[in-house]
Design a protein that fits this description.
single chain; about 300 residues; alpha/beta; Alpha-Beta Plaits; Rossmann fold; globular
Length: about 300
């Protein structure tokens, strides 16, 4: 199983670190340089974590644990209004970033009201573009239990965060964290910070289970390897959007429109195959602003090869 960790230190002797990552078969997920300071997020085999940690310290850097690196997670509120988009949602999104993930906050168009709350097919499709979704509901137990229809058909792992402990929702989501309801101020106290850590650890546990499941039938190519190929494409390299390429557990989001660059994506060669042969490529449901690439597993590619030969 691969582990994700971050090196935080100087540029001096960093080449030794990159050589060590390559030697153990690891992949650099993200590299950020500021003057003489360098941050490197890497994915490495779990059995080599101790060795890479020693290399990081030998070259004068620190090792940080970023278990959610390489993921994009949606934090969903009932609406964008002040009543449903309280400070805890922003705190949860920030905690996800502290754990190394990329977080996106969104509100539903018609999520308000126990009897009238709704989620549209488009909203559901947008949420399913992410690796997981954190649904933040409110302070009333009967209202939380009634609103399970907002997330019970979501196709990605769902973590429910709410005030009271609901009953009968265990089969509708992957995890439930109670004790965080609507409040009009930031979560600053020590108890509140511990609750945020609990949410972060819960998301980490859900993502680890998803990673383990993917390792049972590995992807044809690691998303980070595909990211390295795409970085050479000029429109992506010249993009001014933050993080033009975002890694997912089973693929990536490329922040250029698919329709405008369809020919490039369809004909990109990956290990002697066209990208369309080893991945599903679709336009994002968010105003066609991005391209979503879902990499097929090795068994899927092999099955398709057998059907073509038959």
């Amino acid at each position: 199983m691969f582990e994700v960790m971050m090196y935080d230190g100087g540029v001096y002797r960093s080449e030794e670190l990159f050589e060590a990552i390559e030697d153990v078969g690891g992949v650099v997920l993200q590299k950020t340089r500021s003057s003489q300071l360098l941050s490197v997020t890497m994915s490495i085999p779990g059995e080599d974590k101790e060795y890479l940690s020693k290399v990081c310290k030998d070259v004068g850097g620190e090792v940080k644990n970023v278990p959610l690196a390489g993921t994009e997670i949606a934090v969903v509120g009932c609406t964008l209004g002040r009543h449903h988009m309280p400070h805890p949602i922003c705190d949860i999104a920030e905690e996800i970033r502290e754990y190394g993930g990329i977080s996106v906050v969104m509100g539903l168009a018609r999520g308000r009201g126990k009897a009238t709350s709704q989620i549209s097919a488009k909203e559901r499709a947008i949420i399913e573009e992410y690796d997981a979704a954190v649904f933040m509901l409110g302070n009333f137990k009967h209202c939380v239990e009634h609103k399970k229809h907002l997330f019970d058909e979501i196709g990605v792992p769902v973590i429910l965060v709410c005030g009271p402990e609901p009953e009968g929702l265990e089969d509708d989501c992957e995890a439930i964290v109670a004790g965080v309801g609507r409040k009009a101020e930031r979560m600053r106290s020590s108890d509140e910070r511990k609750k945020l850590e609990q949410i972060g650890d819960t998301i980490d546990s859900v993502i680890r289970a998803r990673r383990k499941m993917l390792e049972e039938d590995p992807l044809f190519v690691h998303p980070a390897e595909l990211k390295q190929l795409l970085e050479n494409y000029e429109p992506i390299d010249m993009s001014l959007r933050p993080a033009p390429i975002v890694l997912h557990l089973d693929g990536l989001r490329v922040k250029i429109p698919y329709n405008e660059h369809k020919e490039y994506f369809d004909n990109l060669e990956v290990y002697g195959r066209k990208l369309t042969d080893i991945a599903r490529i679709t336009e994002s449901k968010i105003n066609d602003s991005s391209t979503i690439i879902r990499i097929k597993t090795k068994s899927e590619v092999e099955d398709e090869d057998r059907r073509k030969k038959a």
